[in-house]
Structure formats: C-alpha cells, structure tokens
Specification:
The protein is mostly helical and 81 residues long. The model has no long low-confidence stretch (mean pLDDT 89). It has 3 helices and 2 strands. Bound molecules: zinc ion.
C-alpha cells in the first residue's frame, strides 16, 4: 500500500536504517552504500544471472561485506524494492 508522506518544514527525516537525521529516507552514508550495492549487482547479474534477493542474501552472509553495505542490504531485503 502506498502511503503518501507529508513533509513538514523544519521536521528532520530520520534514516530508516540507523536513525540518523537526514534529508531522505536513508542518510547519505546508507544511500551511498545502496548505490554501491545496485551497481555491484548489475555486474553480478550479468555474469551469473543471480536474482536481486539472492544477491542481497549473499551480501549479508559475506563476512567481508562492510557494515554500512550490510545494513543497507538487510534494509533492502526487508523493504523488497
Ligand atoms: Zn543511515
């Protein structure tokens, strides 16, 4: 269900991942992590034909994944965008 959200001037938005104040649904750090994830996915999908959810799970389970990227992947898995 789509819920339009009212943006009230002066009210800070909080990152849905870490709760830090930001200008969007997620803070800059997590937005960057999400972009990295999506770019990396394109390369992997071309090479291996991996699906988005499968890819995110692999990222989360990979011990070498950085914390920010891992948090973003968990968030994306939950939100299923
Ligand atoms: Zn954040």
């Amino acid at each position: 269900m789509f819920e339009p959200r009212l943006f009230i001037e002066g009210e800070e938005m909080k990152c849905r991942i870490c709760g830090r104040a930001g200008e969007d649904e997620v803070c800059k750090r997590h937005a960057e992590a999400e972009i990295k994830l999506r770019e990396h996915f394109k390369v992997w999908a071309e090479r291996t034909g991996i699906g988005w959810t499968e890819y995110l799970r692999a990222i989360v389970e990979n011990e070498r994944t950085g914390t920010l990227v891992k948090e973003a992947a968990i968030y994306l898995l939950r939100s299923r965008r």
